[in-house]
Protein 1
Amino acid sequence: MPRPTTRAPDAGWTDPDCPVARTLDLVGDRWSLLVVRDAMDGARSFTEFQRRTGIARNILTDRLRKLTANGLLAQRTAPSGRRREYVLTDAGRDLFPVVVTLRQWGERHAFAPGEAHSVLVDRHGTPVPEIAPVSADGTSLGTETTRVRKVR
């Protein structure tokens, strides 16, 4: 699969050796992830993204341009043939587990106990189970059981 961006490591990456930092350079602002979230939920047009997020037109224009330039969204002709619409690329769809994990963290830490919030459900209406990283042998992973192997 092609890389989502052509930015070279010396072209302004926050931390050129860290995948987390590079990802945040691409989608780390509030509005970009909300646009991706809404694309995952079926938004396709500029108007839909604006209605769902409440984002200012100039900011939305900028985020759609950046997400398209970085290979997370693509533009195509809408089925009506009259407009262009935005669709997730493979790289954009690959953010699904990230968005689910952020959602689940928010459910645990950003709401008061018993406070109402939206729920992500599968096609049968069943809430999506917790995402939790595990090792190759099925052992739960966390900060105390992993480390980063630096390249330098």
Protein 2
Amino acid sequence: MTVSIRPLDPLKDAELIHPWVTHPKAAFWMMQDAKLQDVERAYMEIAAHPHHDAFIGLVDGAPAFLMERYDPAEAELVGLYEAQPGDVGMHFLVAPTDTPVHGFTRLVITAVMHELFADPATARVVVEPDVRNTAVHALNAAVGFVPEREIQKPEKAALLSFCTRAQFEAATAATGATA
């Protein structure tokens, strides 16, 4: 499978991602009741933010996941931990499907991490998933994330976790994971 990532266009892509972010399996995305205009607005805000970006991931040319990258010193985690130079925050969401493919989500998170570490300035990836989202905790661990502590964000209790380039490379080398 070939993975590519392109910038998300809030106006053109809102219709594509609306069913993704409102799907029951996307409960931790916290947009369950969002209307199309709400999704447009949310991603317009991200597009306008100088330290937050959104992307569409394609697998074999078909849109398959949503990825967000942010500077945790300027967005999402401001004041919740001591950001270090080279920290990059990340969110990802795999599009819902009626025909799940074994290992697909692992392929996606590996591709997302490769994309983030493709920037030589990225030293460490930071995530803050909901503490109840055990499925994503397992995926994060599989690519090298190490939980540090629980933090309280305005919208959730989150598990602050970090993954250095070396941790990612060791985790993916150990499993032979590629993207």
Protein 3
Amino acid sequence: MLMRTDPFRELDRLAQQLMGPGTWSRPSAMAMDAYREGAEYVVAFDLPGVSPEAIDIDVERNMLTVKAERRPAAKSDDVQMELSERPLGVFSRQIVLADTLDTENIKADYDAGVLTLRIPIAERAKPRKIAVGGGSSRKEISG
């Protein structure tokens, strides 16, 4: 079995514990992937354990903002926490979108802890052929 170690994982976890959970005024960052798939730009955010009702997506001009909140699970009084590594609190990410994207038709899906946004590429930005007209009216220069 191949095991890969990340020497900074413990440092990241320690920093997260020292800073505390993200708040609405100081949210933590969320991991994401972004790629182009055909005529769409796709952005996927990792939000495990977040309910769909706790996700807020806004677009203002070309700024896309995604905020989410992961709250602790309700536990009974007799539960004694032994280990807690899953971050809680508010998470946020902002992305500047290109003018070539159609922000009016963004689609959002949330499945298995992954929020996927599909942003169509605007018609004006898609490649197209330009027809070249032939000049049938030739002028002759005589001199």
Protein 4
Amino acid sequence: MRDSGNTGASPCGSRKLGSPARAADIYVGSYHRACRKAADALQPDRLLILSARHGLLDLDDVIEPYDTPHGAADAVTGRVLLEQATMRDIVGLDPVVALGGARHISLVRSVWPHIHTPLAGTRGMGEQMARLAAIREGRDYI
């Protein structure tokens, strides 16, 4: 996140390392990696990962591998995300950019209703990956 309030959020992923690791390293799936590269290209002052189990994670947070999809009984909720963002004093940040699928975006909107969602309007994984590549390469993505 930039001091001006620019925040980047990247989704977790179902593919993870098999042992505890930093949030920056534990998610090894191609979709997460594509989102991370695009988020890095946006050069936010702070980049957070949205974990279905843990909520908002800084890149250096060490977590255990887990298998919790969005919507599961032990999955994070919008209320929990709002509490986490409040504790981190990042609720009022603007702009906030979120990269990820509809479930992730829905959760992020519970904290930042006016987030910028560059993947909105895509029709499937192929279009999302192409848009992420455009962001990563600095091409117009809107």
